[in-house]
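Reminder to self: keep the SMILES exactly as supplied, no canonicalising. Ligand is zinc ion.
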Amino acid sequence: MKCRVCGSKMNKAKTDLPFKIRSKSIVIIKELPVLQCSRCSEYLIDDQNMAKVEQILSSVDRVAELEIVHFAA
Ligand SMILES: [Zn+2]
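Structure tokens returned for the bound complex:
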């Protein structure tokens, strides 16, 4: 897999990413597996993990302004 921005190699990594849901709520997903570019800040989430992210986001249906979820949990 190569970076679509700079063409460098993408490496598997885990990171914490914020996802905005609704107008005021932010969900931070921790330890999310991504492909991270070795040269720039570009990253990719593969389809399988993205599907799980969407599942997590749809299950966080509270009024909390900030929710922190571990991806693996
Ligand atoms: Zn890159």
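Points to follow up:
The beta strands are 10-21, 25-37, 43-44, 66-70.
The chain is about 20% helix and 45% strand.
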